[in-house]
Amino acid sequence: MKPVVIIGGGITGLTAAFRLKQRGLPVLLLEASDRLGGAIQSVRRDGYLAEFGPNSILETSPVISDLVRDLGLESRRLYSDPSAEKRYVVRHKRPVEIPTSAAGFLTTPLFSPAAKLRVLAEPFIRRAPEGLEESIAQFVLRRLGREFLDYAIDPLVAGVYAGNPRLLSVSQAFPKLHLLEQRYRSLFLGQFLGARERKRSGEVSKQDAKKSSFDDGLQVLIEALQAGLDGAIETSAPIAGLRRTDEGWLVELERAGEGSPMECAAVLLALPSHKMASLTIETTPALDLSPLAKVYYPPVASVVLGFRRADVAHPLDGFGMLIPEKEGFNILGALFSSSLFPNRAPQGEVVITCYIGGARAPLLPLNTPEALTEIAVKNLEIILGVRGRPTFQHVAVYRHAIPQYNLGFGKVRALMNDMELQAPGLFVAGHARDGISLGDSIVSAHNVAARIQAFLASEVKRPKAMDHPVSV
């Protein structure tokens, strides 16, 4: 049987390949670079552990814990420290704890009395017309008011998407939020009533989901997937093009002297939008992938800093902090990494991971690592009362970090859906379409593996042109 070729060795491609191999299907994963994992990479140095990209997995679906189990990683999985559940938003240049209860909301200094009254009026706001596409800023202003946008949603959007709430589409970037209004008319009512549906499906809201990692960071997950695909991976294998035939697909590698194109039964594109757009795909009817090149991926820098515990005034007793644009800082936010998981720093030290850039300040990540470190340190001095120089520093820059599901992104999603319909045997999965979190990518990979298996089963049953000759 011809293999399924998976193009892209990030978490989506690796997970989909692993699931397909589990189902007894031959697979071959091709990665253009010389390493696997995409943005997921962990480094341990001098007693510190730094993550290049994501720091944890939100276990929003049983699919995620099933993957950990099937990879034999349950004994290495770490859940975040229950004492580090607090989240902070910076206001008046100081971290303010985000309230998690109605009583906490009424007493928090994060919002003014007028803003609290405005939020309490939310259940009485009419829903938007079903076909109207709003930005997140428009949606929040209409339902919750200006102050809630500035000091709750703007920092949240910066922390999740590194994005701009005036540009992101609420229906595309936060579809569940949009659905709550459309289905229940009120976000508050929808949150309460929708909990029953999540319980039936086994899904957990991102707010309530457990945060997990591994003893040596998220790189453990990548290494386990790689081991599970032994012999079915080629790195440094960029693709020149794809061609659909009556018998399946042909994949041509860029490497000179590779000979004939590779035959395969199906192809999975687990790539960023701009990389999909650069592919030559020959099929009838022809596919126009140029709109994919217009999806914005702003640059983001991750700056991991170690400090002596005694040199940080703040207790770091939480998940981290988000920073509204109105506060005027250069970092989008910070994770209190050593508070979340053990063995991220030596005894008596702490690790803080800062993020710089995104749609808010796309030029900042283009600075040198030394300049980025100085930017982060100066911001932390003001917000967290940090003194002295870092005892550890690690900087990673992603020039194309997170796809922005901006206004009009629905057309891009529709194009990717049409690609699968117009070119049977071609599949798309991952953060380019199915959600940007690590957990979203794992779920996307699980789902596309099931779709590929169903497609191959239908191809086996489909009669070929010569199977039933017609007498004349």
Helix content: 25-40%
Number of strands: 21
| Low-pLDDT stretches | 465-472
For the termini, the CA-CA separation is 34 Å
Task: Give the overall silhouette.
Answer: globular
- Main beta sheet: strand number and arrangement? 7 strands, mixed
Number of helical segments with 4 or more residues = 15
Strand order of the largest sheet: 8-7-17-18-19-16-20
Alpha-carbon Rg, integer: 24 Å
Strand content: 15-25%
Mean pLDDT: 92
Please tell me about this protein's structure:
By secondary structure, the chain is α/β, with parallel strands linked by helices. Helices cover 34% and strands 21% of the residues. The protein is built from 15 helices and 21 strands. It has a 7-stranded mixed sheet with strand order 8-7-17-18-19-16-20. The chain has a 5-stranded parallel sheet with strand order 10-2-1-14-21. A 4-stranded mixed sheet has the order 13-12-11-15, with no helix packed on it. Strand 3 and strand 4 form a beta hairpin. It is globular, with a radius of gyration of 24 Å. The two termini are 34 Å apart. The relative contact order is 0.19. Mean pLDDT is 92; it is low at 465-472.
Topology:
Blueprint: E1 4-7, H1 11-22, E2 27-30, E3 42-45, E4 48-51, E5 57-59, H2 62-70, E6 77-79, E7 86-91, E8 94-97, H3 102-107, H4 113-120, H5 136-143, H6 146-160, H7 170-173, H8 175-184, H9 187-201, E9 210-214, H10 219-228, E10 233-234, E11 239-245, E12 248-253, E13 262-264, E14 266-269, H11 273-277, E15 281-282, E16 300-308, E17 318-322, E18 331-335, H12 337-340, E19 349-357, H13 369-384, E20 392-398, H14 409-422, E21 426-428, H15 438-461
Parallel strand pairs: 1-2, 1-14, 2-10, 7-17, 11-15, 14-21
Antiparallel strand pairs: 3-4, 5-9, 6-9, 7-8, 11-12, 12-13, 16-19, 16-20, 17-18, 18-19
Helix pairs in contact: 1-10, 1-15, 5-6, 8-9
